[in-house]
Design brief:
Order of helices and strands: HEEHHEHEEEEEHHHH
Strand order of the largest sheet: 1-2-6-3
Low-confidence stretches: none
Distance between the termini: 44 Å
Largest sheet: 4 strands, antiparallel
Number of domains: 2
Number of helices: 8
Mean pLDDT: 94
Radius of gyration: 18 Å
Length: 218
């Protein structure tokens, strides 16, 4: 009998976390065979576990993290009779941010990244497992949005080119800065706005992981 605890243990060997899940509406999400999904389980990362496993088994070529995630999630999905999907899967993309907010207490932060009350901005979603049947899910944690009680909002005052503001995120200003040579500190040590957030510092990405994600963004 498949249960979330067993699936979580299977994911742990790859440094991945079973983040949480939800039961979609009938016909809202389709499986590869055309059936309606009864359960969506989100798979993600926080802390160093995933990066350690990925680094040890990194595939050669382009988009290595997506390719590694696909391989791992396909293997786990096959063990439990599920479909594995990644954020980049169509059509045209999977709405992972919306799924995440339905599944667990994550909230849009002032800089756009979903913030978690424990992990802060240092977490991600690598994919999801879709099941036809409805699995028993743990109760959703009712944790508050940490941004609601943050009056200083250092994430909006730290970017050297002011790419983040109440008006939104100026992506082009950010990219120009990173490509100019003046943004080498951001490239090597991760986004300064992200680092400024006081939540979840224990889960902050190490230098190798931070540089990898920044290079992929640029």
């Amino acid at each position: 009998m498949t249960d979330c605890g067993t699936i979580a243990v299977a994911l742990e060997r790859y440094g991945l976390l079973l983040r949480s899940g939800f039961h979609p509406e009938v016909d809202e999400i389709k499986l590869s065979g055309g059936e309606s999904a009864g359960t969506v389980l989100l798979v993600g990362n926080a802390g160093p576990g995933m990066w350690r496993e990925f680094s040890a088994n990194r595939p050669a070529g382009a988009n290595p993290l997506d390719r590694w995630s696909r391989e791992v999630l396909d293997e786990v999905a096959g063990s439990f009779g599920a479909d594995a999907v990644l954020p980049s899967d169509g059509p045209p993309f999977r709405p992972f941010q919306q799924w995440a907010m339905r599944a667990e207490p994550v909230f849009p932060s002032p800089i756009g990244i979903l913030i978690h009350p424990v992990y802060g901005l240092w977490h991600g979603y690598r994919g999801a497992l879709l099941f036809e049947r409805m699995l028993d899910l743990p109760d959703k944690d009712l944790l508050a949005n940490p941004c609601d009680s943050c009056t200083a909002r250092p994430c909006l005052a730290t970017c050297p080119v002011g790419a983040f503001s109440e008006r939104g995120y100026d992506v082009q200003a950010c990219r120009r800065h990173l490509r100019s040579g003046a943004g080498d500190y951001c490239l090597d040590g991760s986004c300064l706005a992200r680092q400024a957030c006081p939540v979840g510092r224990d889960y902050a990405y190490g230098a190798g992981q931070a540089a990898f994600h920044m290079a992929a963004f640029v």
